[in-house]
Backbone:
């Protein structure tokens, strides 16, 4: 079974919940934890990972390269590049790799055939075995690169390299490419939100995404006590979909600073996490 943790909004506790569920499930089953937030991966921090044992560079995108021997400096490519990636420097055509999106238009229209799209190493996959005895797979998109959704697909393939009963995927914020790639093909989604106007708005957006893929889901409200009126509204609208509420607790911040999982502390939220875990097991018959 593949469970994905999503939110539609950043900073609402996805990694905290994903790490806690990973640890609790690992006591009973073989699991794999996967950090699919390739732009800002931090699941490893919650699980005490300071470095990864295995790092594999991957190529999931293309960029344009120019052959100066074929280029006649006609400047047509500069005019048609919508990203402003092609420039003339000291009388020569150059490509700004930070701006090139690999669309391939320059390769198509160049009368001299001076441009060629080539694969580039745009990210990496990192693997480690946590001290809690289950694998952690994490992706990282290099600065200025694109193709985050494709790197997530590579991560999901790596999950199959490890024997497991259950995998838990920690997604990125929002509803963009890496989130869609994380959700697609999952068996169940846990949507975590906070009782704020932006949290509620983004919850509705992520619900539309999981419903588009026909995936069943439950909701957890984090920091439920900072706005009880909004918490009640979310509970009223989503009803039985809400399987847990987690309190605001400064202890959680101290836990992260120490790189110590919340469920191994005396934090107030520990019992609340355990309740979410218990209800999730009953819901999924695990």
Residues:
């Amino acid at each position: 079974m593949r469970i994905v943790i999503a939110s539609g909004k950043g900073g609402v506790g996805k990694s905290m919940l994903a790490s806690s569920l990973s640890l609790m499930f690992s006591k009973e089953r073989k699991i794999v934890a996967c950090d699919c937030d390739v732009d800002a991966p931090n699941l490893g921090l919650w699980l005490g990972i300071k470095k990864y044992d295995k790092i594999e560079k991957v190529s999931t995108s293309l960029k344009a390269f120019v052959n100066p021997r074929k280029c006649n400096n006609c400047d047509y490519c500069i005019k048609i590049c919508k990203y402003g990636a092609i420039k003339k420097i000291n009388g020569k055509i150059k490509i700004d790799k930070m701006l090139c999106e690999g669309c391939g238009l320059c390769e198509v229209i160049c009368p001299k055939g001076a441009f060629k799209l080539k694969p580039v190493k745009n990210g990496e996959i990192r693997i480690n075995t946590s001290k809690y005895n289950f694998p952690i797979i994490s992706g990282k998109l290099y600065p200025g690169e694109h193709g985050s959704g494709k790197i997530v697909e590579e991560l999901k393939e790596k999950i199959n390299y490890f024997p497991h009963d259950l995998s838990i995927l920690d997604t990125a914020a929002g509803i963009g490419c890496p989130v869609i790639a994380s959700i697609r093909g999952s068996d169940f989604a846990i949507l975590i939100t906070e009782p704020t106007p932006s949290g509620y708005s983004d919850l509705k957006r992520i619900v539309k995404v999981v419903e588009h893929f026909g995936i069943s889901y439950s909701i957890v409200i984090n920091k439920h006590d900072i706005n009880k009126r909004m918490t009640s509204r979310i509970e009223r609208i989503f009803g039985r979909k809400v399987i847990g509420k987690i309190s605001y607790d400064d202890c959680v911040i101290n836990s992260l600073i120490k790189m110590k999982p919340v469920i191994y502390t005396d934090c107030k939220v520990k019992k609340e996490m355990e309740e979410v875990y218990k209800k999730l097991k009953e819901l999924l018959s695990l």
Notes: The mean pLDDT is 93.
